[in-house]
Design brief:
This protein is mainly beta. It has a single domain (32-236), classed as Porin, CATH 2.40.160. It has 1 helix and 13 strands. It has one helix at residues 2-8, and strands at 33-44, 47-59, 64-75, 81-92, 100-111, 119-130, 133-144, 154-163, 170-181, 184-185, 192-205, 208-221, 224-236. The longest helix is centred in the N-terminal third of the chain and has 7 residues, at 2-8. The chain is globular, with a radius of gyration of 18 Å. Residues 1-16 have low confidence and may be disordered. Keywords: Signal. Residues 1-17 form the signal peptide.
């Protein structure tokens, strides 16, 4: 544990939350199970942080998707250290009766050291379409309860545009950011904003399906210039 803390101090302020790098979307996937692999890395000032994740997801109903996954963290090419267990739930409030779809996203994170408490994330997930182009916008409120008093409620956002050109290749853009306390934003030069090109696609493998996405993000992370690569693979069965 001491080694992990020392490595973490090499990259102060880098956001480790997975929703700072992966878009949350909500679909009707009733009865579908999936193995979900995610990976992101961030480079700044010659240093690198990376976080592979592996999880199991399931569409409980046409409105409710749930996933349980673990996260590992790597610093500067070193070995992966188990970081936390997270439980994500997304619930669709609308299903086509409006020009947009609305869902509620929640996530509870339990760190490796259980004495450190937990963290909570909650917020709306919005999606709409114009022709073959899909637009997503999410706002999440995050709070860390790893201290007795609890940390401040902070706000993060996600934006995405995706054009469904071909099933196996769908180009788009993604953007992520954190602004600090939800009611008292940090100065602009201390906020985090990252954006860049993304690709998406899916292929059928017999009766199963493989979905993928990847993005290259450039911007600032906690006020520091950083570049990130993210990817996600879902094996659906």
């Amino acid at each position: 544990m001491k080694k992990f803390i020392a490595l973490a101090s090499l990259l102060p302020g880098l956001a480790l939350a997975d929703t700072g790098y992966y878009m949350v979307t909500a679909y009707d996937v009733e009865g579908q199970a999936s193995v979900d692999y995610k990976y992101w890395n961030a480079h700044y000032n010659g240093r690198t942080a990376a976080a592979p994740e592996i999880g199991i997801g399931y569409g409980v109903t046409s409105r409710w998707y749930t996933e349980l996954y673990g996260t590992w963290v790597k610093f500067n090419g070193g070995g992966a250290v188990y970081s936390e267990l997270a439980w994500q739930n997304d619930y669709l409030l609308t299903q086509g009766q409006y020009p947009f779809d609305l869902a509620i996203h929640t996530k509870i994170e339990r760190p490796r050291e259980r004495s450190e408490g937990y963290a909570l994330e909650i917020g709306p997930v919005l999606q709409t379409e114009i022709g073959r182009t899909q637009f997503n916008a999410n706002v999440f409120f995050q709070r860390d309860y790893r201290t007795e008093a609890g940390g401040p409620m902070e706000m993060a956002y996600q934006l995405q545009v995706k054009h469904r050109w071909k099933g196996w290749f769908q180009p788009g853009l993604q953007a992520f950011g954190e602004v600090g306390k939800w009611d008292d934003w940090l100065p602009l030069n201390q906020q985090s904003h990252r954006a860049g090109p993304a690709i998406f696609g899916h292929r059928d493998i017999g009766k199963q399906e493989l979905k993928y996405e990847a993005a290259y993000l450039i911007g600032r992370n906690s006020g520091r210039a950083a570049k990130s690569f993210t990817m996600r693979l879902q094996y659906i069965f």
